[in-house]
Every structure is written in structure tokens, then in C-alpha cells.
Amino acid sequence: MSVVTVQLGQCGNQIGFEVFDALYTDSHCPQGLCSKRENEAYQASCKERFFSEEENGVPIARAILVDMEPKVTSQTLSKAAQSGRWKYGQHSCFCQKQGSGNNWAYGYSVHGPRHEESIMNLIQKEVEKCDSLSGFFIIMSMAGGTGSGLGAFVTQNLQDQYSNSLKMNHIIWPYRTGEVIVQNYNSILTLSHLYRSSDALLVHENDALHKICAKLMNIKQISFSDINQVLAHQLGSVFQPTYSVEGSCHYRRNPLGDLMENLVPHPEFKMLGIRNIPQMSENSLAYSTFTWAGLLKYLRQMLISNSKMEEGIDWHVQPPLSRLPTLGKASLNRELQFNTSIANLVILRGKDVHSADLGGFKDPALYTSWLKPINAFNVWKTQRAFRKYEKSAALVSNSQFLLKPLDTIVGKAWNMFASKAYIHQYTKFGLEEEDFLDSFTLLEQVVASYCNL
Amino acid sequence: FWDLALREHAAVNQKGIYDEALSSFFRNVDTRVVGDGGSISKGKICTLKARAVLIDMEEGVVNEILQGPLRDVFDSKQLITDISGSGNNWAVGHKVFGNLYQEQILEKLRKSAEHCDCLQCFFIIHSMGGGTGSGLGTFLLKMLKDEFPEVYRFVTSVYPSGEDDVITSPYNSILAMKELNEHADCVLPIDNQSLFDIISKIDLMVNSGKLGTTIKPKSLVTSSAGAVKKRHQKPFDAMNNIVANLLLNLTSSARFEGSLNMDLNEISMNLVPFPQLHYLVSSLTPLYTLADVNIPTRRLDQMFSDAFSKDHQLIRADPKHSLYLACALMVRGNVQVSDLRRNIERLKPSLQFVSWNQEGWKTSLCSVPPVGHSHSLLALANNTCVKPTFMELRERFMRLYKKKAHLHHYLQIEGMEESCFMEALSSLSGLIEEYNQLDATKSMPVEDFPRLSVAM
């Protein structure tokens, strides 16, 4: 089954390129550590999901590019074409000239309706190329105007037009300081709308990715390209094919459906995060060897202490002895040490996957009381190594990891809203204070729900 | 400005193709075609025409331009001139010439707009102290708002310095301010004294021949080599160069590619939290650069520090000791997001931001540096440090107005009454009061508003 990707705005398009590039390079990586037949099956599965065939053998990404100004999409298209490895479809791009001005209301209320038909047509064309559709993967940022506002609009449309297909929104959580001043407004408007129309929100935080680049990859002058590459690596380690059944050699067919089934048991809890191990520059790889026991031990601690990387983990955080839920906001004000999970999915790739012991993740103390570990925890495996990593593990989790960042954004946006700052910029384009209040209400509800796990 | 813009695009555009970047400021025209049908949208550059309308109620300056080397850049149909001038009288510029030329101006604006695929923004460049720029300029501003309500209006206004030789400049400025308050989306105030001080500093550095501080020969800020005018005879040329660079840098991220683009509409969106408070203090760094291309990090950080120093602002203002409502950093050249973040973290503690916008930073990264530099930074601050400029202006106004000096020149114009002055004064006072209220919050502790509580 295939996944149709919608790349929105500068962020979405810049990331989209890196993701397809990572997927392609991995599937054509010579060091697969498995048999030739195995490798071919892997490649074929990856291709079915993300690429369609072209006459002269250059695969075309199953994606559409949308932006309200032309510079980024034309750059993205030419970067792909110049690589010679894969490319975007000739008519897969929709762009305008004037941008969205970092204004969620402009993206949602002006661009959305104006360009609805053209964009949905493009999506339809891409969907028709698929033999069967697993669902949509929508890449967008929360801080800007196009990704956030138009992204929310498009997702809503997808829900109406393709009600039987799944939608996963990949959201970029902005740096805490210094990207866009109205980013908190744009974020709460986006999140509240997506919470109603999307099936799952896969979140990547710029601050976390930045730290990974600095500490683990040892990059001195970090660019957005570096950040996007780390991100693409993480996404690749989740989306590349894995066996459908323990012990079999057939690859699972419905990546989005399986992800949702394993990770989103309840519609109130939709926010997913990724952790990956090991994460290091490829030069250092040659000098390191890993055991599954070691990798999984670190990964587990990363989960429960809410750390995004394998360095600087707080080993003191341990699961609580009693699993009684704590009520109310008091628990938020206390230092939230332990990260409670609703559901976890571990994906193992590489040598001796079958020998990996996942007992640590089946401990009921990790999870909220209303789901047993047997339902809350799942494993996917493949012997085929990911890129050059002899062993690698990814963890996709639905947990409290975003609780603090979300609470912070809601708090800041609320302070700004109470001062009425910048509101006129939004009401100019059809949004009203009521809409803001609705968003705040919904998100306070989400915060409370996660808090009470 | 047009001189520098052409040079900037010439440096970047090697193949002479008329591209998106060029089309933001220029039309491509085949001059052999008579009338209006000569526009070419793609392909090789034929003749570039500035997307501009030039207005002056005297002929001297415009004639000089039309006889100068840039004469082909301007379409003679895009000019409006008169002979007598406005006599440094806002009322003459606004009421008399406004009415007289309204139709003509409108027609030429409409023509220019039609030539654009997607018109995003008007740049109005004028002075506040005279008669035409101030009076007719603000008349035009209102017209733009009525005719093209969705197009942003950015105004670059030269405010009169303390030692300004036009006696009536306070009247003109205050009358104009009311219009700016009501009809502009964003105003970038500039004053001549600050420009002059910056130029003097550069001259000092060049002439003292300090080791390692040589001006790059092709720098657009100071160089006359390759520029249209052979020598900078008057200091005004050098001073105007700075303002021209301001406009270039303001639009660089919209014209050229980068990893974090910023369009003009984003400036207004992020920096104007309340409609009236749209005055942005600007600073450009570095004004001088060194010979080597790979600048070690320390010097890059210096560029960021300088942007906040009062010596680099284009008006007399000290943002560091006043209150920030919002701040934008527009970087060009070989600078990455980590450099930006590092410097924001470093400088943040020494700056005061209003309580509801403690992290009020807007950033952009454009990969194309200005000609002759490896990187540059434009900082735009919505900061209460503009207040002193307005208060001084008000004082100078009051000194004249109390004695009714020169008032008759204005009142004799049809449509002008004393109430115009009173309204303008009250508009300015209202603005100053807003800044005062914000300043009052400066030393108060930041308290969070109580959040919505949700029933579980």
C-alpha cells in the first residue's frame, strides 16, 4: 500500500526532500547485511510505499509540493532532479507568489478556500497513481503561515474527501525562542484544528534536533539542512519496511494503518514522538559496536526520562511503585520526572534482531493503567540493516513527552492573547476571538488528559 | 537605491536572464515597441525599468536623474513634476497639489500595478520636514490605502534633525505623523544626524588605517568604484547609500533564496502587535568589513552585538535601555541557524522585552550576501526608544505653535484650519502615551495570566 505525502510551506518542502532522499539512499544501500533476495524485497516494498515508476527508470516520489511563494518549491524540485537518483513529478507542484505572511488566518481562511480545488485535484491525481492507498503523510511546521494555516485547512479537506483513509500529520515544533514572534498563536490554532481532523500527530522538536546535531553529530555550524537530515534519518528508520509477522520474511503492507493501530488507542491521545539509537555521524560509526541489550537499555531510559538522545540521560528516573493516577494540575507543577506512556512501538533493524530482549519495555509500570502492556507495546523487526547501521532501534511512543512543551506554548499564547497583542492581524482575515478561545479550551483539555495519565 | 539594486542583481545574476528576483523591482521591456505593450516576462534582459513613480513639485532633482546614467531605468511616463515647489509647506503639498494631481497619480499607480503579476507592497520614500514629501507624500499614502487596501504600505521617512534648517519642519512633520499613524502599515524612521555620524565613523576607520580594518573595495556602503556617481561630492550621497542598503536588505529574503525566508508581509505580521505601534528602529551591521572571507566566529558575533548598539541605529535611539515589543533579525550570507541562536541567547539577557512577548524574536536567513560583504545583518526593532524622537518633535512644534509663528502660511490654504493642527498634535500625543504606558510596565515583574480551568 502507498503513502501520499503532502509537503506544505518552506519547512514541509525542505524536510520532504530530505525524507525522500533518505528513504531512497537507504533502500539502495549496498550494506544491507542480508541476502540479495531479501534486499530486493525490501527495495520493492519501499518503492511501493513512496515512489512510483517512470519510463527511464528514475523513481518519482509520491508527493505533492505546496507553497504560497515560489522560491522553495523550485529549489526543492531542482535539487531532486539534479540528484539523478529520484525526482518529483513534473506536475506535482502548486505554488503562488505572495506567501502567507506567517499568518495562520491568511493560510487557513484566504489561501485555503481560494486554492482548495487546485490542491485537492493534485492530491487526487497522486492518489490515482496508487494501487491501494495506505493514507496521507502531511509535513508542515506550526510556526509559519502556510504550513500551519493551509496545512490545517488541507487536513480538514482530506478528512471530508477521503474519510476512509488515514492521515498522519508530521509537525515541526518550533524553537522555543527566535523563529517567529506569533508562533505560539499559530501553533495553538494548528494543534486545535488538527486534533479534530487528523488521526495522529507525529512531532519533531527543533530544539531537540538541534541538540542532537550539536552533541551527537558534532556539527559546528548547524544549518537547517543538518537538522532536516537528522529528522529524515529518524523518519526513515520508522517508515522503511519491516516484517509483518514475527519470523516471516514478508514485509508489512500498511505502514500508516499499523502505526495507528499500535499507537493511537484513544482519540484523545494523538501525539507521537520518535527516538532513535544510535545517532552519530557516519564517520564515527566505523569505530563503534553495539549490542541489542545496550541499545535497548539506553532507549528505555530515554523514554522514561523524556530524553531525546543517548547522551546526558538522567538515570535516576525510575517508574513509580504505585500506578495510581495523580489528579489535577498539582502534578504538573511538581517536576514531572517520569514519562508515562500510553503505547510504544519499538522497531529493530539489523543483525541478530531475533535475539533482542524487549522485556524492559513490557513492564506495566511504564504504562498508564487502562492499557495492558500486551496491548500497549509492540515490536517490528527486520534483518535488513538501516543505512550503515549494523544495529539500529527506533522508538515511536505515545507518551507524556510533549506535555511540558505544550503547556508552555499554551501559557505563552494565553499571556499574549490576554494582552490582545497581534490579534488584529488575525481578525483582519476572518478569525475571531471566539476561535482563539475554542482553541485554548481544546488544548487545555488535552493538557489535562495527558497530565492525568 | 536603484543604482545599488542594479549592482546587486548584476553581481548575482550571471547569465543576464530576467528572473523572479529581478522582477520584484524591475520590469523587462522591449523599448522598440511603442506604447505600453513592450513588457517581456521571461528570457534575456532587454531593458530594465524600475517599478517606480517619481513625484516632485520642483523639477531640479528629477531632471538630474533623467539626465544621469540611470535615465533609461526610469520610464518617463512614471513621473509627475511641477515647477513651483511646495515651499516647505505641508498644506500646499497635501491639499493644493494633492487635489491638483490626484487623478494623474492614481492613473500612473494603476498602470504600474497592472504591470505586476502579484503586487505585495508599496515602498514610499520621503522626508517629513519639507512640503512635497511630507504633504503630497502622505496624501498619496491615504490614496494607496483606499485604492489598494490589500497591498502593504512601507514608509521610509526622513525625520528632521535638531539642527534642521527648515523652520517649519516641526509643523510639517507633525501634520504628516498623523497620516502615518493612520494609514501606514510600517514606518522606518531615519534621521540625518544619525546617518552622518555613521558615515563619519566609517571615514575615521578608513583614514586611520587601523590594522585589519580595510574597507572592501566593492562594498556597496562606501564604494564609488563601479558606482554611477564617480565621487561622493556631498555627504548626502553616502548617507543615502545607507538608506538604500536598508531597503535592499529588507527585501533580500523576499528576492533571494535562503533556509529561512521572510517576506515583507511577515515583517508587518510579526513586528506590529497593535495597529498604531508600527514604528521600527533599524540598524545595519557590519558597516565595514575585513579582507578575509572566512570570518572567525568571534567577529560574526560582533556583528550581532553591534546591531543593538545605539551608534548603529538609523535614528537617535538606544534600544538597549528601552523596552522591546518585538525584534527582527534579517541575516544575509554565510550564517547558519546555530550562529543565530547562539547570539540571541547571548544578547537576550541584556535586553528588556515586554511581558507578553518575552521571546519576541523573528529571524530570517538569506543565502545571498550583499555585494562586497560575506554576511550582513539588518535588525528591526519595535521599541519604545522611538519615543524621545517624537517627544522632541512635539516640543519643537509647541515652541512654534505657541507663538503662532508662520501659521498663516498654512491657514491661508483652503481646507486648513487650526483644528488640523490640534488633531495632529493629539494624534501624536496619543501615540506617545501608548509608549509611556508600555514603558511603565518595564520594571514590573512578569506575571502569568490565570489559565482556563477545565473540568475533568
From TrEMBL, chain A:
<dbReference type="InterPro" id="IPR000217">
    <property type="entry name" value="Tubulin"/>
</dbReference>
<dbReference type="GO" id="GO:0007017">
    <property type="term" value="P:microtubule-based process"/>
</dbReference>
<dbReference type="GO" id="GO:0005525">
    <property type="term" value="F:GTP binding"/>
</dbReference>
<keyword id="KW-0547">Nucleotide-binding</keyword>
<dbReference type="InterPro" id="IPR008280">
    <property type="entry name" value="Tub_FtsZ_C"/>
</dbReference>
<keyword id="KW-0539">Nucleus</keyword>
<dbReference type="GO" id="GO:0005634">
    <property type="term" value="C:nucleus"/>
</dbReference>
<feature type="domain" description="Tubulin/FtsZ GTPase">
    <location>
        <begin position="47"/>
        <end position="247"/>
    </location>
</feature>
<dbReference type="InterPro" id="IPR002967">
    <property type="entry name" value="Delta_tubulin"/>
</dbReference>
<dbReference type="GO" id="GO:0005874">
    <property type="term" value="C:microtubule"/>
</dbReference>
<keyword id="KW-0966">Cell projection</keyword>
<dbReference type="InterPro" id="IPR036525">
    <property type="entry name" value="Tubulin/FtsZ_GTPase_sf"/>
</dbReference>
<dbReference type="InterPro" id="IPR017975">
    <property type="entry name" value="Tubulin_CS"/>
</dbReference>
<dbReference type="GO" id="GO:0005200">
    <property type="term" value="F:structural constituent of cytoskeleton"/>
</dbReference>
<dbReference type="GO" id="GO:0030030">
    <property type="term" value="P:cell projection organization"/>
</dbReference>
<keyword id="KW-0963">Cytoplasm</keyword>
<keyword id="KW-0206">Cytoskeleton</keyword>
<dbReference type="Pfam" id="PF00091">
    <property type="entry name" value="Tubulin"/>
</dbReference>
<comment type="similarity">
    <text>Belongs to the tubulin family.</text>
</comment>
<dbReference type="InterPro" id="IPR003008">
    <property type="entry name" value="Tubulin_FtsZ_GTPase"/>
</dbReference>
<comment type="function">
    <text>Acts as a positive regulator of hedgehog signaling and regulates ciliary function.</text>
</comment>
<keyword id="KW-0342">GTP-binding</keyword>
UniProtKB/TrEMBL annotation, chain B:
<dbReference type="InterPro" id="IPR004057">
    <property type="entry name" value="Epsilon_tubulin"/>
</dbReference>
<keyword id="KW-0493">Microtubule</keyword>
<comment type="similarity">
    <text>Belongs to the tubulin family.</text>
</comment>
<dbReference type="GO" id="GO:0005874">
    <property type="term" value="C:microtubule"/>
</dbReference>
<dbReference type="InterPro" id="IPR003008">
    <property type="entry name" value="Tubulin_FtsZ_GTPase"/>
</dbReference>
<dbReference type="InterPro" id="IPR036525">
    <property type="entry name" value="Tubulin/FtsZ_GTPase_sf"/>
</dbReference>
<keyword id="KW-0342">GTP-binding</keyword>
<dbReference type="InterPro" id="IPR008280">
    <property type="entry name" value="Tub_FtsZ_C"/>
</dbReference>
<dbReference type="InterPro" id="IPR023123">
    <property type="entry name" value="Tubulin_C"/>
</dbReference>
<dbReference type="InterPro" id="IPR000217">
    <property type="entry name" value="Tubulin"/>
</dbReference>
<keyword id="KW-0547">Nucleotide-binding</keyword>
<comment type="subunit">
    <text>Found in a complex with TEDC1, TEDC2, TUBE1 and TUBD1.</text>
</comment>
<keyword id="KW-0963">Cytoplasm</keyword>
<dbReference type="Pfam" id="PF00091">
    <property type="entry name" value="Tubulin"/>
</dbReference>
<feature type="domain" description="Tubulin/FtsZ GTPase">
    <location>
        <begin position="30"/>
        <end position="258"/>
    </location>
</feature>
<dbReference type="GO" id="GO:0005813">
    <property type="term" value="C:centrosome"/>
</dbReference>
<keyword id="KW-0206">Cytoskeleton</keyword>
<dbReference type="InterPro" id="IPR018316">
    <property type="entry name" value="Tubulin/FtsZ_2-layer-sand-dom"/>
</dbReference>
<dbReference type="GO" id="GO:0007017">
    <property type="term" value="P:microtubule-based process"/>
</dbReference>
<dbReference type="InterPro" id="IPR017975">
    <property type="entry name" value="Tubulin_CS"/>
</dbReference>
<dbReference type="Pfam" id="PF03953">
    <property type="entry name" value="Tubulin_C"/>
</dbReference>
<feature type="domain" description="Tubulin/FtsZ 2-layer sandwich">
    <location>
        <begin position="260"/>
        <end position="395"/>
    </location>
</feature>
